[in-house]
Amino acid sequence: MDGLIDISFAGGMFIGIATVIVGVGVLALSFRSRDKAEGLVRLPYIGSVSTATGTTIAVVLIFAGYHFFSYEAPEEWMIFGVPERFKWLVYAGSVLAVIGAFAADKQDSFGQDKRN
Fold this sequence. Notes:
Blueprint lengths: L6 H26 L1 E2 L4 E4 L3 E4 H22 L14 H29 L1
Antiparallel strand pairs: 1-2, 2-3
């Protein structure tokens, strides 16, 4: 059936689109709910993080969601993307970016506690 999408791929594409939408929402929250005095962003289910960490989480969600969608969508739909044999690098890099952002927040708060 040319032109139709296999139902197993539609679920993966939906997850990719949903992840991008959540990433855009987190990005909007990062800029709207920013506490100017402390430089913190309040994200639901996560708590208060720095603006840089909030932005990192948003960009990673958008990046990973796009690639998740691109691995499930027909090849002719996608203009560019990381080859599927390297998709583990996309996901590992995404996880490491978020872990690194949280670690930097923790290190920064630890340094501020020692100075006070």
